[in-house]
Amino acid sequence: MTGVLLNRLAQALLVMAAVTAIAFAMFRYVGDPVLIMSREDATPAEREELRAALGLDAPIVVQYAKFVGRVAVGDLGISYRNQRPVAKLLAERLPATLELVAVAMAIALGLGIPLGVLSALHPKAWYAQAIQAVSLLGISMPTFVTGIGLIMLFAVGLRWLPSFGRGETVALGWWTTGLLTPSGLRSLILPAVTLALFSITLIMRLVRAEMRDVLASDYIRFARARGLPRPYIHFTLALRNALMPVITVTGLQVGSLIAFAIVTETVFQWPGMGLLFIQAVSFVDIPVMSAYLLFVGFLFVAINMTVDVLYAIVDPRLRSGAR
Amino acid sequence: MTRIPKSVAIAGAIAVALIATALLAPWVAPADPTDIASYNLIDSELPPSFVAGGEARYFLGTDNQGRDLLSAILYGARVSILIGGGAVALAALLGVTLGLVAGYFGGWLDAVIMRVGDVILSLPTILLALLVSGLARALIPNAASASWAPFILIGAIAIHEWVQYARTVRAATMVEVQREYVRAAKVIGLPPLRILGRHILPNVMSSVLVIATINLAGAILTEATLSFLGVGMPPTYPSLGTLIRIGNEFVFSGIWWIAFFPALTLVIGVLAVNIVGDWLRDRFNPKLRSLA
Questions:
Q1: What is the complex's ipTM, to 2 decimals?
Q2: Which residues of A touch B230 (CB under 8 A)?
Q3: Which residue, of A62, A122, A265, A293, has the greatest Cβ tally within 10 A?
Q4: What pTM value is reported for the model?
Q5: Would an 8 Å CB–CB cutoff place B157 in contact with chain A?
Q6: Which domains, from first to last, does chain A contain?
Q7: What count of other Cβ atoms lies within 10 Å of the Cβ of residue B108?
Q8: What tens digit of pLDDT does each residue of A4-54 get?
């Protein structure tokens, strides 16, 4: 167990080191920060002065160490585009993205697991076949096409739901939430469903495959032979073991939901971090890009670590370090 | 020889037909959407010919600049397929080479390649691709960016996808290296390059082809997503994603066809390739199941 964890921790540190190095390299080498920050008519002497003031003439290792130090205390620089501290921009946008991702994940698990179990229990039934066919379509449908389709249908055609923005939000301290107002909730439906769709398919296919494997195993057959009640066999004995890999995939899905939130937020003009990032990419706003990279890298490492630890807790075989 | 299921045969036929039509677009399309002289702003936003107000000249209608949408889709699909195929080829080349090297030589070389792969796989494709294309756009002057766009996209997608090939090929190579025939080849003193190329490579190729098929669908989707987000192909040389991006601006004015038909083409194409890929995987290499 400790071995596994230490190994994971080492890997996590490696990833973080790589991500900060890339973020640093972006800051330092993509465009000259001095040229970007100085006046257009600045003399070379003034530029050198600014370079020294910014510490850009120091050895590269020193600069990198300073960069890591600044990041560690939350100083992520100033956005080239809107001249505001990047950390503040990210903090403003964080609640919108996290609420969207959390709701999408809840939808994905809430629909994906039951549908997967259903089609594993009755693989020959018409609805199981229908679910399979639709799921292949779901995998082949890019997020932005799903989003545009839903907008065409529910916002432009039927005019039931809003197609952009977050609606009214309520401030709880520094956190703004759209979950407490009717317009906020209505605005959340389409983006969350769009974002969830791909994950529903994935979780459903996984649960179905795992469940079928478990149902074919010896202990389930013995339980059947003993005449134990079916719901007990299916949901207590089988489902529990079938859900093991779902933990890992759920963790990974949170990561890719955050990544795909970039697309969903663009389609629905959802004011989250993804929209901020894509705007930064099109305006080559390096501080925002590198800050987003750092944030997402850190988030992913944290998620992967959590998943590994959870897995070790749930699966006793991993605890003894038998691998 | 097992029989090919009907659904797979149909999907395969659709995929082949679509790819062939797209690649032959310059010869089969009614007009050339990249030729500014061939279209007129007066014809812009005409609906498809089977809808009231449509003209027979434009079967699927026209886009916001008066380009024939059918031609734009065929040319766009061509761009999408060339970029997707290019990304798959680059990723396979890189991944197979690195996988062979890692599996054959082992040691620190293996460790470095695989750790780099781990780091890359811990980020989603789309994020890495966005980052790479964003940086490339920052480094390449604006004037040249349009002509560089396809290569940036190919690189941005391949940088994530090679890891799958490398992992699979590495595992297969490690098994093959233990086999008699490889040992015999070593004993008679063949150079490693020859052993890898002539003896091991043919034995790992079937897995590579299966991954490549599944990858093609994913690569086309990634390209479409990047273009949709505005960091892919420019409107002057649109891919399917660019067309959908353009169409998306008109959805609210009831002009649905500019986004709808490119999206339909994209989804049908990717679905067809996915069905074939799924079947190939189950048929030739069920072990790869865990990758998807």
A1: 0.77
A2: 278, 282
A3: A265
A4: 0.81
A5: no
A6: 2-72 (no CATH), 89-273+292-322 (1.10.3720.10)
A7: 8
A8: 677 778 878 887 888 888 888 877 776 666 666 666 677 777 777 777 776
